[in-house]
Design brief:
Helices cover 63% and strands 0% of the residues. It has 2 helices and no strands. By secondary structure, it is an all-alpha fold.
Length: 60
Amino acid sequence: RRLVVGPEAEGVFTLLNINFFLMGITMSCVGIIGEYIGRIYSEVRKRPRYVIRREWDIND
């Protein structure tokens, strides 16, 4: 196989592992920032969590 394809590159799997590790950290940071921005957006809107459509009087 080495005669046809050539010698295998050294350290390719190490570079791939480092790359995937750093991509995982990046995706985690993007998720944390997205959660933070989503909570800020919900707080800025100042909408109530629910709206009371009708009130019933118990004394009737």
